[in-house]
Amino acid sequence: MTNAIYTFGEGRAEGSAAMKDLLGGKGAGLAEMCRLGLPVPPGFTVTTEVCNFFHQHKKFPDVFEKQLRTGLSHIETILGLTFGDAAKPLLVSVRSGARASMPGMMDTILNLGLNEETVKGLADRSKNKPFAQESFERLKKMFGDVVGKPLPHDPMEQLLEAIQAVFNSWDSPRAIEYRRIHHIPADWGTACNIQAMVFGNMGEDSATGVAFTRDPSTGEKFFFGEYLINAQGEDVVAGIRTPESLDQMRQTLPQCYQKLTDIYKKLEKHYRDMQDIEFTVQKGKLWMLQTRRGQRTAHAAVKIAVDMVAEGLITKEEALLRVEPAQIDQLLHPMISPRIKRKVLAKGLPASPGAAVGRVVFTAEEAVKWSEKKEAVILVRTETAAEDIHGMHVAQGILTAHGGQTSHAAVVARGMGKVCVAGCGQLDVDEEKKQFRVGKTIVKEGDWITLDGTWGDVMVGKLETIASKLSKEFHTFMGWADGHRKLKIRTNADTAADCRRALEYGAEGVGLCRTEHMFFEEGRIEVMQEMIAADSKEARKNALAKLKPMQKKDFLEIFRVMQGLPVTIRLLDPPLHEFAPHVEALRETNPMLGHRGCRLGITYPEIYEMQVEAIMEAACELAREKISVMPEIEIPLVGLAGEIRLLRELCKTVCERVMQSTGQKIEYKIGSMIEVPRAAFRADAIAPYADFFSFGTNDLTQTTLGISRDDGFKFLSEYEQKGLVHSDPFQTIDFEGVGELMKVCVKKARQIKPDMEIGICGEHGGDPASIEFCDEIGLDYVSCSPFRVPIARLASARARLKNVK
Amino acid sequence: MTNAIYTFGEGRAEGSAAMKDLLGGKGAGLAEMCRLGLPVPPGFTVTTEVCNFFHQHKKFPDVFEKQLRTGLSHIETILGLTFGDAAKPLLVSVRSGARASMPGMMDTILNLGLNEETVKGLADRSKNKPFAQESFERLKKMFGDVVGKPLPHDPMEQLLEAIQAVFNSWDSPRAIEYRRIHHIPADWGTACNIQAMVFGNMGEDSATGVAFTRDPSTGEKFFFGEYLINAQGEDVVAGIRTPESLDQMRQTLPQCYQKLTDIYKKLEKHYRDMQDIEFTVQKGKLWMLQTRRGQRTAHAAVKIAVDMVAEGLITKEEALLRVEPAQIDQLLHPMISPRIKRKVLAKGLPASPGAAVGRVVFTAEEAVKWSEKKEAVILVRTETAAEDIHGMHVAQGILTAHGGQTSHAAVVARGMGKVCVAGCGQLDVDEEKKQFRVGKTIVKEGDWITLDGTWGDVMVGKLETIASKLSKEFHTFMGWADGHRKLKIRTNADTAADCRRALEYGAEGVGLCRTEHMFFEEGRIEVMQEMIAADSKEARKNALAKLKPMQKKDFLEIFRVMQGLPVTIRLLDPPLHEFAPHVEALRETNPMLGHRGCRLGITYPEIYEMQVEAIMEAACELAREKISVMPEIEIPLVGLAGEIRLLRELCKTVCERVMQSTGQKIEYKIGSMIEVPRAAFRADAIAPYADFFSFGTNDLTQTTLGISRDDGFKFLSEYEQKGLVHSDPFQTIDFEGVGELMKVCVKKARQIKPDMEIGICGEHGGDPASIEFCDEIGLDYVSCSPFRVPIARLASARARLKNVK
Question: Which residues of A touch B577 (CB under 8 A)?
Answer without folding.
Answer: none
